[in-house]
Specification:
Mean pLDDT: 97
CATH class of the largest domain: Alpha Beta
Low-confidence stretches: none
Structural class: alpha/beta
CATH architecture of the largest domain: Alpha-Beta Barrel
Bound molecules: ligand LLP
Oligomer: single chain
Shape: globular
CATH superfamily of the largest domain: Alanine racemase
Strand content: 25-35%
CATH topology of the largest domain: TIM Barrel
Number of domains: 2
Radius of gyration: 23 Å
Amino acid sequence: MDHFQLRNGELYAEDVPVERIARAVGTPVYVYSRATLERHARVFREGLSDVAHKHLAFAVKSNPNLAVLGVLKRQGYGADVVSEGEMKRALTAGMPAEDIVFSGVGKSRRELAAALEAGIGQFNLESEEEGVELAEIAAAQGRTASAALRVNPDVDAGTHAKISTGKADNKFGVAYHQAGAIYRRLSGLEGLAMRGLAVHIGSQITNLDPSRAAFTKMGELMRALRAEGCTVTHMDLGGGLGVPYRAGERLPGPQEYGAMIADVTSGWDAVLMFEPGRVITGNSGVLVTEVIRVKPGVTAPFVVIDAAMNDLARPALYDAWHDFMAVQPTGERMSAHIVGPICESSDTFATNRDIDTVKAGDLAVFRTAGAYGATMANTYNSRALVPEVMVDGDKWAVVAERIEPETIFAAERVPDWLQ
Ligand code: LLP
């Protein structure tokens, strides 16, 4: 359930007509709904109501906008960050350092040091080498870093290959069969307080069986470590819960996910940590675009829109589906290819799609664009960086300005010897 609904034949974001925002800010533009963000944050937490001790860390990578982070902070969420930049965003949004988890396969020395200085609550280590380095830096600073070891359980999440992270050949975590020995060695290092295990097998997960299998393996590892006298008080179960991208699609939601977690983890006696991203932000945002023109094609017309793969990369990268709807639908339908203006064929959002009939000048949206949308935008073809708007009831505001090409190339320099 989201707050982008038709009222009297026109699409609204909460109580604001989408057209009003598009005419004021221009297109393309992302529009987020505060009520939807809050609802999803609440529903995810409620799904885990049977988990006694939990820590919710919003995956900043899914939508790092400061206004979005502020909403989630007020919902009691900490953050899962994967770079110094994301860490600074979470801190700037007011999230307490101790509620921040630092994940990521390639944390640099500099990032580790900065995160230690900031007092980050937990480091999710991706290798023994990273643990040794973190221990050294912490000891030199006279600090102790709380850490979890990310384990690769070799479980196929059944999602798109490019967003699958838990198979043996994926770069993430340490191999399951080596995890025990590494954990024991890291537990003995000065500067490091090993407190748990972490796992994350992929994103846009639509079947809970692989997660159940992975968490079951993690429970076995936890018990084996405890039996040897190691401390394991925290179990980070990652993020990954999928969202419906097509109207009417039924997927396991937070309720089913929570029931599975409660079942698998019963008797664990650990703080369970979660890193949800998409399930909170996905349906909280749309990308608004204007139709530039409709061009005849051989099999179907091309609807050429002013949003492109640089604004929303998911269809080009993962063949992802985003529902497309007119802001003022007439009730008529057409079959069309939806394409952006960028000069390559990967700038295609949909082929032979049954859509609302649109013509030049009409506004339309891609739905479920709140996660991995604006944050993956770039300026290819010297296009502007897409702006973002937050709606709250009948109020709305620009929460990220459009960054024009001139601003971007103002950072470029032509040395004397080229002039
Ligand atoms: N925790 C870790 C360690 C992760 O790597 C990720 C996502 C998450 C949590 C959050 O996962 P979520 O709940 O959002 O599924 N750009 C891709 C998705 C990449 C996900 C990367 N890791 C897309 O547009 O589908």
